[in-house]
Structure formats: structure tokens, C-alpha cells
Write the C-alpha cells for this entry.
Amino acid sequence: MKHRMKLPLYDIEPRTENNWIAPSATIIGEVQIKRFASIWHNVVIRGDINRVDIRNFACIGENSVLHTAPSLPTGMQAKLWVGANSTIGANCSLYSCHIGNDVMIGDKCVILEGARIEDGAQVLAGSVVPPGRLIPSKQIWGGNPCCFIKDMNIAETWSNYTLSYVNHHLGEVHKNEFTMWSAAYLDKETNQEDIEISETGPGQTSSPNLMHGVVKYYA
């Protein structure tokens, strides 16, 4: 069976706008992905219980899973939000949390329900953010459970912000390789038929191959 990248659920279809979405990714239900975001290989985004919003220039790394809870004990919305210019590393699990703008989440992190990571913060690789935990803006947290490490300097903040544009550019490169047009002709070797002119002359069809005798030029 051919893999389906986008799956509607309850008549709600995922909405995307000029993104790079890997062919092996799966996006289900009420999901909105804004312009220039990049969704990498084997990512699963499930908007089957609550809404998932991914904003401009966000990046979701390979093998990550984003899903939602029916409700939160705090009474807040249980939707999952990934802010603009935020980067989610590979093999992460995000569950009904709020990721602000310009946030960096390291590889293999688990962000549990109700957690809120404010703008410009960073979570180190392999960390677990417990339910309801608030990580203030421009701070680095890490560990299991995560705890405060240090305040970020300007260089670290700028590095996390610019990483989103690097990922966007890389996604555009990949997107140009997965076009709807076949590129098999680039692998075709020139044979004798391609370089010989038919002896019967132009306009005559002595062969079932109507293109026989046409000289092909390859750049």
C-alpha cells in the first residue's frame, strides 16, 4: 500500500502552506502547518483529539511524535502549539504542550502535557519536561526531570534563532529533489538509436518507432 502523507479525520484535513514535508511523514486530522516549516522523515503529527499548530519556519526533526490529550487538569486548552522559528530535535515526543517562538528542543526530549516553554528558551538533549512545568524565556534547562541550568547569552539566543533558517533552506533543497516530475531521463544512457539518423529520410516511417531517426541532444 502506498504511504499517505496527509490523512483527513472526521472530515478535517491537515492544512499546509508551502512547506517541506518528508514523504515518509504522517500528518493526521486537525493540523495546521504554516509557511516555510519543515517536517522531516518519519515524523507523526496527530491532530485526532485536539488541534496541532506549527508556525512559520518551525522545524520538526526525524522520528518525532506530536499528539494531544483530551483535556488538561488546569483547564487550559489541550492543543499543541509550536511557535515560529522553533526547532524540535530528532526522536522527541511532544504531548499537548506549548512551545514558544525561537525555542530549541534537543534530541530525544519528552515534553509532557501542560508544559510551557517560553520564547527563546532551550531544553537540552535527553531531557524530560514534567506536566505543567514552566520554563522561562531565554533560559537553558536540562535533565530528567528537567531543572534550571543557566541563563542564555546573546550568542546562544541568536544561534537558536538562525538554526530555523538553516533548516528551512535544507528543507527547500530536499523539496526540489522530491518533485512530481520524473527524473528518470537523467539516468538513461545514450544508445545507438539516439545518435543515428534514419536512412529513410525525414518524414518517412519505415519503423513502428515514430521517433526513430530524431537526433537527441543532451546538455
